[in-house]
Amino acid sequence: MNSDATAEATPDTSARSQTDVVIQGIKDMITDGELVAGSRLPIEKDLSARFAVSRGSLREGVRALATLGVLETRQGDGTYVTSLDPALLLSPLGFLADLQTSAGSAHLLAVRRILEAESAARAALLLTDDQLGQLSATLDRIDDILQSEDSELDLEGYIDADTEFHRIIARASGNPALAGLIESLVGRTFRARLWRAITERRAVRDTQAEHRAILSELVRRDPDRARIRMSVHVLGVEEFASDHQAEVDPSGASGPPV
Fold first, then answer.
1. Options 1.10.520.10, 1.20.120.530, 3.10.180.10, 3.40.50.920; CATH of 89-248
2. Is-above-0.85 flag for pTM?
């Protein structure tokens, strides 16, 4: 094999290591306080000299950090550190959820159940009156959907309101990291929840009754009962996903039409 062929067959490990240098270097600048949320990165020439890397490797590192939600490039204005909001930084967790098999979907729902049960307990102690009002209004929207005289249930509207209910509670937990994890999972379990709503119409009304029970405990400021109510609520979807793996599996031809 000639040298050119060898070069083509051999991975460019030096380029990858230079990109890693960029990623680590920018991360250190943030953790050391040299860069903060909203800061503009130094110009390419200065950064590449600082890290002793090529501009190509610098750009690769910046692109990787942009994908992770750490940086954002503004056309014609440079590259900036994002808000570093936990929900933004945890959003790549969605890739994990998207790649799950049917069995993996049930596993993720189990994780979601544990996290949401704790968020409900924390929220019971921290929810403001305004947030309680938002939760009540969200459930009223679901009631309106369920009482609609249309023959077809507005499944999209139902799932949107259901998702908003859980997000309000997660954000009210007072723990941005916990809320970020939950938000990254709630939307990713959409398929299982939708398919359950399609195949088990009674489950929609049962789920709404569970929502109301959770809200009642939140209004009472009872963390232990709120935790139990939320755990039982998410467990229903988890068990459905486990029992109907072929239908929920996004790779299965018999799955839901979404």
1. 1.20.120.530
2. no
